[in-house]
Amino acid sequence: xxxxxxxxxxxxxxxxxxxxxxxxxxxxxxxxxxxxxxxxxxxxxxxxxxxxxxxxxxxxxxxxxxxxxxxxxxxxxxxxxxxxxxxxxxxxxxxxxxxxxxxxxxxxxxxxxxxxxxxxxxxxxxxxxxxxxxxxxxxxxxxxxxxxxxxxxxxxxxxxxxxxxxxxxxxxxxxxxxxxxxxxxxxxxxxxxxxxxxxxxxxxxxxxxxxxxxxxxxxxxxxxxxxxxxxxxxxxxxxxxxxxxxxxxxxxxxxxxxxxxxxxxxxxxxxxxxxxxxxxxxxxxxxxxxxxxxxxxxxxxxxxxxxxxxxxxxxxxxxxxxxxxxxxxxxxxxxxxxxxxxxxxxxxxxxxxxxxxxxxxxxxxxxxxxxxxxxxxxxxxxxxxxxxxxxxxxxxxxxxxxxxxxxxxxxxxxxxxxxxxxxxxxxxxxxxxxxxxxxxxxxxxxxxxxxxxxxxxxxxxxxxxxxxxxxxxxxxxxxxxxxxxxxxxxxxxxxxxxxxx
Length: 501
What we know:
Layout: E1 3-5, H1 6-22, H2 26-38, H3 42-61, E2 71-79, E3 83-85, H4 90-102, E4 114-115, E5 122-123, E6 131-137, E7 142-149, H5 151-154, E8 158-162, H6 168-178, E9 187-194, H7 197-207, H8 214-220, H9 225-238, E10 253-261, E11 268-275, E12 281-286, E13 314-317, H10 323-327, E14 334-343, H11 346-357, E15 370-372, H12 397-407, E16 411-414, H13 420-428, E17 432-435, H14 441-445, E18 448-455, E19 464-478, H15 485-500
Parallel strand pairs: 1-3, 2-6, 9-10, 13-14, 14-15, 15-16, 16-17
Antiparallel strand pairs: 2-7, 4-5, 7-12, 8-11, 9-11, 14-19, 17-19, 18-19
Helix pairs in contact: 1-4, 2-3, 6-9, 11-12, 12-13
């Protein structure tokens, strides 16, 4: 009988979470590199290049791939013949591993879990509790699959209770464009069909743990309905032309995963869960011999790619930028930002909006300034800031008109598209929205030369910082006339793909 020690579980979970914070799975790197080589849209190709360069930098520097170091999800299969040497329950052991991983002094991971989610929303400080699923199975080992899932991609999850005769593929193809780019494509879609509502969600999430193998499936052909659906959706989703970061292009998904489960005769529950460009998961087995050993990948696993600004790049000094300069920018333009850049996301925007509604003065003057939607990782060593990639901009849409019209804010930087409400406010105020690449947080942080908190320090990573940036690469996503690259790009590439088919 195998004896599993409590400390081995805790240490293995902690090591796994550190490991996946800076190592992409090799299958993901290979698939992303193939997408880079195939891509014909320069903007999308540039975004994929930044993701791959960031991945290599994180692997060598052992720092997080994304500033959103995720909500931890753990799937555990416990062998029936295992005996425990422990005084903690399984969930407590796993959560202790999470606690140790996220507070590791050499690679601090951002704690994003909030207790009292519909009330005070207090940060638990250590990213616990994890979401844990476990099964008792035959055998004398424990298999654990650890994943860290970002909030931006999790927010784009879709679920429907379809009628038995409804077409699953048609429903998925209707939903994917509604997901926008906030899930940071290219990535994967996990699709769960059957069971009950919660079972469909669970198997969709679990499907994302499978290796990327769509091209092997294409070569051998489908042998069941789930595989047929994978092939159909892989082809049709990519023909939507959404592309990397929603800029338009040939690759929106690297793979489609489908799992099913028997369901009630009156039901067809279907869930879609996207996995972003910060795909992070690892599997290990405990057999009583000690903590899991996770071998470091070889540096040769990453392609050698250099990022260059290219022709036509614009440079902007944020310290003296004018509305007239902003009006000359066009959707899709690459701009290198230098100078003083403010930060602020959900909690800071809500607090500022509340203060303005009460007639109170803000602690920082936003007139003519740019604000970056980011919640950075804490720095380690001689870093001025930890990985600092953008968060999903649509969450700030409801504050946009207030910020532009009552503070004189000139520009915003974030991830993915803006909704109609924000685009109208940007157009009416002749402001601008710029997009940084989601999934390239460590690379973005290299452009930040200094950082200081200037307001709302109690909000932690959601406080207002002032960054000094140098040549921070961004794309003009919504120009001063309200033209959006996230509408123009996919429409153009959907047409190009249709002509090539």
